[in-house]
UniProtKB/TrEMBL annotation, chain A:
Annotated source species: Arthrobacter yangruifuii
Name the UniProt record assigns to this protein: Branched-chain amino acid ABC transporter permease
Keyword Membrane recorded: yes
Residue ranges with Low complexity bias: 356-365
Claim: Protein biosynthesis is one of the keywords in the record: no
UniProtKB/TrEMBL annotation, chain B:
Lineage: Bacteria, Bacillati, Actinomycetota, Actinomycetes, Micrococcales
GO-annotated cellular components: plasma membrane
Domain of life: Bacteria
UniProt organism field: Arthrobacter yangruifuii
GO molecular function terms listed in the Swiss-Prot or TrEMBL record: transmembrane transporter activity
Bilayer-spanning residue ranges: 12-29, 36-54, 60-83, 95-117, 137-159, 188-208, 214-235, 242-260, 266-287
Protein name as catalogued: Branched-chain amino acid ABC transporter permease
Keyword annotations from UniProtKB, A to Z: Amino-acid transport, Cell membrane, Membrane, Transmembrane, Transmembrane helix, Transport
Subcellular localization, as worded in the UniProt entry: Cell membrane
Record family assignment: Belongs to the binding-protein-dependent transport system permease family. LivHM subfamily.
Membrane topology: Multi-pass membrane protein
InterPro entries for this protein: ABC_transp_permease, BCAA_transport_permease
PANTHER family: ABC TRANSPORTER PERMEASE PROTEIN (PTHR11795:SF451), BRANCHED-CHAIN AMINO ACID TRANSPORT SYSTEM PERMEASE PROTEIN LIVH (PTHR11795)
UniProt GO BP: amino acid transport
From TrEMBL, chain C:
Name by which UniProt lists this protein: ATP-binding cassette domain-containing protein
Membrane-spanning parts: none
UniProt-listed GO biological process terms: L-amino acid transport
Keywords: Amino-acid transport, ATP-binding, Nucleotide-binding, Transport
Top-rank lineage group of the source organism: Bacteria
Pfam families: ABC_tran (PF00005)
Listed PROSITE patterns: ABC_TRANSPORTER_1, ABC_TRANSPORTER_2
InterPro entries (UniProt xref): AAA+_ATPase (IPR003593), ABC_transporter-like_ATP-bd (IPR003439), ABC_transporter-like_CS (IPR017871), BCAA_Transport_ATP-bd_LivF (IPR052156), P-loop_NTPase (IPR027417)
GTP-binding listed as a keyword: no
């Protein structure tokens, strides 16, 4: 897909989704905003883990960095009497910047790590988050977190759209922006370098690519995307607190990236949708069942996590290319034989060359029913 | 000085738990080259079994035995049911599968037992006792030491002195060769997971009642601490896990004692960062294990 | 019993590419058979197929007893009397000499027989006796080869397979180890299948010689006869 086509597609998607907010109920608009916020974080993981082969469990902490940056800058500006678009755009920029700075620090430390070591280190980052917020509780508000003064929708729009629809507009525009930028990066020189480093760091270094710098850059970009997601969440929920950015949330983001189809930004979209839709569907279903208060309280939340966990295991075992991989394969089957050899293009920028196919995580499909270890 | 000594010895007891948990990670790493991210959740599941058995029978000791048996079985089931089928085409796949298990186990525990904290009984008091004029250990600390010493000692004997241990080590070091020599390596792998999981269960059972409180997420922090220990000590080094565990335990105890318990995770993060930046090769292991 | 090992029409390879094409081979019980051939002739593939590490796509592999090995899992081979000395020795370097040896006899239910075997192995390989507690990685190449051979013998095999035992060893050590094979054949009636690139020494020690070329057997004769066939040597073995 050419860059122009990508921009047209992005613009079309944004217009379509914004148009959608006029039809759907305001709660659904709110959910759309949340999907878009999550999508930023998940798409960052797609770049870092899918293309870069670095598994991070710290994405929630980086989104938290974005949310807190948003909160601190927005509140400070509001105290100083700022208002208007500036009170929206500066905090969002701060969110991206704040997360990117933390990402740089993490990347510098973790750039040399791989696989389980990196996962463990970033997990420590997330687990330490509540401790950090309570240590600096005078600034970060401790366990309660911060309430945020947010810039409401412009006066001119107040008669036309609801608060939720406006939140969705903002989130749609920001996430489309993030996705387009990430797609450009992934399909450009940086993406090639990143995959080269993932597949063979020594060969990449011999080809003149600096593996450490490439990995750290990937960390910073992924963190900036997460920061945008955190900023959007902060704006939408008008708060930033440690409870929302727990280890479980990090696992959710990773689950979404993997189940959607790691390495594919379209997969990130499926993952983000699943992440919001599935718990909603499950709680709708359980509320119909008229369960006892105790039981429904226990099922609440847990059932969705259990399903996510089970889905994650099944995807790793049976379909390592995730939903997007399944769709591509289904699409390939529907086509007449001559074109079947070409990877079908979907709504999202598809890989321009075989080299961009996600090759690290997914196993070659012939090897899926893995034999016991040691054979 | 009294306080310093108490914190140090208390830290050693806590460190023994970390050492045991880190050792359980090392056992799986050596047997399967997998860092098992579900280890904490598996151990908590076994602790819930102990909690239930103790509640039904009224005996702590029955609960202890049940935790060991449950840990053993959970480890075997996880290996036979999931991990065996995770291809090793990518080093990330086992990690992701482990995380899936972590979510699944925690959620199932939450559904069965609820997310609320449960109080667990301990067989001994955790108040410090006075010895030789200074207060150092609580009787519970001594109990923790004894349990871990017995189990770890037992494992050391099993691995180094018995034919079964020889088979386990051979299939960990050289699985293909071991098979040619008639070792049924798939069984050894299952057994390795089961033993490791039982050890993890013991560690969780010992630390949860006094430090964490029983809830589905109780072992998240313990896993992170133990992982830090493994990074410091080296995932390939059982001795490194034990020494690193004791050292980290003491450090955590000092930090909590002098600056407050909330700082412990931050201290761990700083320690991890320091080790990775200053000595990325770790203290006991080879650098090539952790960088690509 | 006509032979220690009988291969009939064995075809095997990696993926869809066959390396061995319809191999027919019979190894006499109580004899030493050497399979020689250039690099890439399929010698190691042949051993991997016999030991079950690689499954044949066609043909059968039977022991002299009639036992079909084609479906026997690798870890059960030793229980049917098949032991392998793998290429590059295959000593488990993290374990001690004694542990490596014990491992060889571990499958046997009869502990006392295994202990007796350990004593005999130490008698047979004196240098190992002196280094019981040494770790595998501390041994010299010759000691490692002795250890690998001793470990295979600990399994009390009826059929011993060796993959390039002379590789990287001094000629003197090679002669010592190959000489030991002859003694074992004479003393215990052991059947030996030996894969060697070192054609000269292999044919000196063997009773029967087989030349493998591009996955096919091109000659199978008494070893002494084979060694004297200059044409064959020039064509396939390059000397």
């Amino acid at each position: 897909m050419s860059v122009t086509k990508r921009y047209l597609l992005a613009a079309a998607a944004a217009v379509l989704l914004i148009g959608l907010t006029f039809i759907i109920p305001s709660f659904t608009s709110y959910q759309l905003a949340i999907v878009c916020a999550y999508l930023c974080g998940i798409a960052g993981l797609t770049l870092l883990t899918g293309a870069g082969g670095q598994l991070s469990l710290g994405q929630a902490a980086l989104m938290a960095a974005g949310a807190y940056s948003y909160a601190l800058s927005a509140n400070a500006m509001a105290d100083a009497g700022a208002e208007g678009p500036l009170l929206l755009l500066v905090p969002l920029a701060a969110a991206v910047f704040g997360a990117a700075v933390l990402g740089l620090a993490v990347g510098l430390a973790a750039g040399r790590l791989h696989g389980p070591y990196l996962a463990g280190f970033t997990m420590a980052l997330v687990v330490a988050l509540p401790a950090v917020t309570s240590t600096f509780s005078s600034v970060l508000g401790g366990d309660q977190g911060l309430w945020i003064t947010v810039e409401k929708r412009p006066t001119a729009l107040r008669g036309i759209v609801s608060t939720e629809a406006w939140q969705a507009w903002l989130a749609v525009i920001c996430s489309v922006l993030v996705l387009t930028l990430l797609a450009n990066l992934l399909h450009g020189r940086f993406g090639r370098h990143l995959r080269a480093v993932r597949d063979n760091p020594v060969a990449a270094a011999l080809a003149g690519i600096n593996p450490a710098r490439t990995k750290i850059t990937a960390f910073v970009i992924s963190s900036a995307a997460a920061g945008m997601g955190g900023g959007l969440l902060a704006y939408t929920t008008q708060s930033a607190g440690p409870g929302a950015y727990s280890l479980v949330f990090s696992l959710f983001l990773l689950m979404a990236a993997v189940v959607g189809g790691i390495g594919s930004l379209t997969g990130a979209v499926w993952g983000a949708l699943l992440l919001v839709a599935l718990p909603h569907l499950i709680s709708t279903a359980t509320s119909r069942l008229e369960l006892s208060a105790d039981l429904s309280q226990r099922l609440d939340g847990n059932l969705a996590v259990a399903v996510f966990g089970a889905v994650l295991i099944l995807v790793v075992l049976l379909a390592p290319q995730g939903i997007q991989g399944l769709l591509v394969r289904a699409g390939g089957r529907l086509r007449p034989p001559p074109s079947a050899s070409l990877p079908p293009r979907s709504t999202e920028p598809a890989p321009p060359s075989p080299a961009t196919a996600p090759s690290r995580i997914p196993a070659p499909s012939g090897q899926l029913p893995a034999t016991p270890k040691g054979q | 000085m009294d306080r310093f000594l108490f914190l140090t010895f208390d830290g050693l007891a806590r460190g023994a738990v970390l050492a045991a948990f880190a050792l359980s990670l090392v056992l799986i790493w050596r047997a399967a080259r997998i860092v098992n991210f579900a280890q904490g959740a598996m151990a908590v599941a076994a602790t819930y079994v102990a909690f239930t058995v103790t509640a039904v029978t009224g005996s702590y000791w029955a609960g202890l035995a049940a935790a060991l048996v449950a840990g053993f079985l959970i480890g075997a089931v996880v290996e036979r049911g999931v991990m065996r089928f995770v291809g090793n085409t990518s080093p990330l796949n086992p990690v992701i599968a482990g995380l899936g298990l972590l979510m699944l186990i925690q959620a199932v525990l939450g559904m069965v037992f609820g997310n609320a904290y449960r109080t667990m009984v301990t067989p001994f008091s955790s108040d410090p006792v006075e010895m030789f004029g200074i207060t150092v250990f609580s009787s519970y600390d001594l109990f923790v030491f004894a349990c871990i010493a017995v189990l770890v000692g037992g494992l050391v004997l099993l691995f180094t002195k018995t034919p079964l241990g020889l088979r386990l080590r051979a299939s960990a070091f050289a699985p293909d060769l071991a098979r040619l020599l008639g070792v049924r390596t798939p069984r050894m792998l299952t057994l390795g997971w089961a033993l490791s999981s039982a050890l993890g269960a013991l560690a969780a059972l010992l630390v949860i009642p006094t430090e964490l409180g029983l809830n589905p997420h109780a072992a998240d922090a313990v896993f992170v601490y133990a992982f830090t220990v493994a990074v410091i000590g080296g995932l390939d080094s059982p001795a490194g896990a034990v020494l690193g565990g004791l050292a980290v335990g003491v450090l955590l105890s000092w930090v909590s004692g002098y600056w407050g318990a909330t700082l412990a995770p931050v201290a761990i993060l700083v320690l991890l960062l320091a080790v990775l930046l200053v000595r990325p090769g770790g203290i006991f292991s080879l650098a090539k294990e952790r960088t690509a | 019993m006509t032979g220690g090992l009988v291969l009939e029409g064995v075809t095997a390879g990696y993926g869809s590419v066959p390396v061995l094409h319809g191999i027919n081979l019979s190894v006499e019980k109580g004899s030493i058979t050497a399979v020689v051939g250039a690099n890439g002739a399929g010698k190691t593939t042949l051993l991997r197929t016999v030991t079950g590490q690689l499954r044949p796509t066609a043909g059968s592999i039977r022991l002299g007893t009639g036992k079909d090995l084609t479906r026997v899992p690798v870890e059960e081979m030793v229980r049917h009397g098949v032991a392998l000395v793998p290429e590059g020795r295959g000593v488990i370097t993290e374990l001690t000499v004694e542990e490596n040896l014990r491992l060889g006899g571990l499958w046997r239910k009869d502990r006392r027989a295994a202990a007796a075997m350990l004593t005999r192995t130490y008698e047979l390989f004196e240098p190992l006796d002196r280094r019981r507690k040494a770790a595998g990685h501390q041994l010299s190449g010759g000691e490692r080869q002795m250890l690998a051979l001793g470990r295979a013998l600990m399994a009390a095999p009826a059929l011993l397979l060796l993959d390039e035992p002379s590789l990287g060893l001094a000629p003197k050590v090679t002669a010592q180890i190959l000489g030991m094979l002859r003694r074992l054949r004479d003393d215990t009636g052991l059947t030996v299948l030996l894969i060697e690139q070192n054609v000269r020494s292999a044919l000196t020690v063997a009773d029967h010689g087989v030349v493998l070329n591009l996955g096919r057997i091109v000659a199978s004769r008494a070893a002494a006869e084979l060694a004297e066939d200059t044409d064959l040597r020039h064509t396939y073995l390059g000397f």
